[in-house]
Structures are given as C-alpha cells and as structure tokens.
Amino acid sequence: MAFRTPPEVLLRQCLRYRSVSKIITKPSHSVSQVPCAAASYKTAVCVKIGAPLEVQHLPRPRKLNAREVLISTHALGINFADILTCKGQYQDRRKTPFTPGGEISGKVVEVGAEVSKVKIGDRVIALDFAKSGGASEVFVAPAEAVFPVPEHLSLVDAAATVVSYSTAMMALSRKAKLKQRERVLITAAAGATGLAAVDIARNLFDCEVIAVCGGVDKCNFLKERGANYTIDYTKENIRERVKEITKGRGVDVVMDQVGGDTLLDCIKSLGFEGRALTVGYAAGSIPNIPANQLLLKSSSLIGVFWGSYALSNPAAFMESITQVFEALSQKKIHPYVGNTFKLEQINEAFQFILDRKSVGKVVIKIREEDHPAVL
C-alpha cells in the first residue's frame, strides 16, 4: 500500500535539508579499518516512488575516498524530507532505487587516508542529505559532516538532535536574536523542531514559552517539557488566547512551522517590534501576508531555511551545530525521542509521522548501543 499523506501536509516545506559539505571524490589508496565480518549489509530501499520501501541485502560499500568515513549505523533520525523524497514530492527528485535518510548516529569502522577528526570506534553523528543512505546498517559520510557524540548522550538520542535542534537554534538565536526572558510563541510545538525550540527557549534563554499544539495529551506533554502555557488549536483561538495570556501586550518572538491562517494569527499576536519566524508550511498553504500587519507594530517577518546555510554560509551553518553540541555537553538541553522503530518497520514509522501521531523525534533503531564497531 502506498503511503497515505493527509492533503493538508502535501505542501509542507521541508527544503531546509541540503548537502552538508562538498563530497570529495579523489580516490584514496590508504584507509584505516577494522575487520569486516559480513560481505553484505541490510538496507531499506525505495524501488518505486510512492511504494513501500523494501529491506534488502546489498554488497559491502566500495573503498572509501580520502575524506570519507564509514560508520556502523546504530540509529536514524527520520525527517519529513525523507518521506517526501520517497513519495516523489520533494524538491530534489531521486532516481530509484535509493536508500533514504541523512541524519544518523553510530560507530566509526573505517576512515579515509586524510581523515583525522575521528578514529575507529568513535561514537559519531553524521549528516549527508545530498546522497542520503542512512536507512541502512552502514553509512558513508564526508568527514566534514561527522561529529563526535557527547559522552552522556545515547546514540538514539544523538540521531534525534542535529537537524531539529540546529534549525531551532538558527531560527531563535541567529535570526530572531532572542534575548533572555522574552516571550516566545511556538507552533507545531510537539513535533521534533517545535519541541527543540521549546527546549532552547526555556533552558538556554529563560524565556516564557507559549506552545501551540493539537489535543490535550500534547498540551500536557509540553507543560512537562517546560512550556509555561499551551494553546490547543483544535479548541482555542490562538490570537485571543495569546492576548489573554500576555494581557494584550503580545509576544516578542513567534516561531511558526504551520503557515496558512496560523501564521497570520501569529503575526497579529506580536507585540511592538516583534519578530515572526516562518520555518515551514505544515498547513499545506503559503499565506499572503498583508504588509500593514507588519507596519502597525514595526514588526518583522523572517524566513528560516537552515539547510541553505550549508552552501550559502557554511560558517553560520556550523555555528548552529556547534551551539547545539555545546549545550548538549553542558546538559542544558534534552532531546526527546517519542518513538523508535526497527529498520524492518520503516514503512510503519513513515506512516506514523504522516498520521500525526508522533511527539518529538521518530527514530529507526538499527543496532543496540553496546554493539561493537564492526559491520
């Protein structure tokens, strides 16, 4: 059965994922590696656009290039772009067959001749949305996109961190220039990026957070995760509720991933010189914003496309990741994995997200934490 996408999310903007670094193709004649016990590895393959993925066994990866790292994959963080790619609804159309997934954690089993930042046995996070391939027991990544995992962080939690938290960090810290103890309104707050924004705003900036979500269970969950107030959009009017909470003063910053009428309501909920961040369009529509809504309160509307910084401003891109890792190392932020699935259950995981059942990040757990650094 093909994946069933609710019509209102077909236009969701998941374009913030792009190539993390330039892939170096110069062949390597010297690599460091551990013995390989298996001649093949298990991977989930999209053989036909729109059809369920098939778990197959493929031959061991080719010899590494000089600046590549081979990783024994332990966990894959699912991003909405992975699902759209398999459905043929993503900006970059892929030719089948291919393996989706570009955000993984695992252990290094082999490094190219010019790689020095990691060594065999290291626990790492790796990104590569250009080639993807993360839904697999092994993952080849450019060395520039491989990062050590903080000691206290599990590999499952690590796979849930980089994309969502770096997007939220870029939005709040760099783009909104969030200040301590400001008031922040976050929509789609129970999702991976929304929850990361709640975590960052509360625990790094000591802000008052108003979290918007659907349903009483998600509202209760967000309060447990630190939100000061919640708004259930299925029962409450966002603008009226914000007016009530803030006693008419409005919020300093909005981070919206929904678009449509929700974004307009959020802009109207801004206080004087407020900043509205548009990060995605989960509602399925890109709104036309009356410019006078910005003029009336001298407010700003700011677009945030985290992935575009990888090519256009690599220094800012890396800064957002570094900020996240520093906060993780200091245990100031706390990633949340809502659900885990096995590799053989990847189709169920995709549908789980499409049906809006997920809270926080959904992760494919491929190996156990104590699995050795071998293939």
TrEMBL record:
Database matches in InterPro entries: ADH-like_C, ADH-like_N, ER, GroES-like_sf, NAD(P)-bd_dom_sf, Zn-ADH-like_protein
SUPFAM superfamilies given in the database record: GroES-like, NAD(P)-binding Rossmann-fold domains
Cross-referenced SMART domains: PKS_ER
GO cellular component, one term: mitochondrion
Protein origin, superkingdom: Eukaryota
Molecular-function GO terms, alphabetical: oxidoreductase activity
Segments forming domain Enoyl reductase (ER): 50-364
Name of the featured protein: Enoyl reductase (ER) domain-containing protein
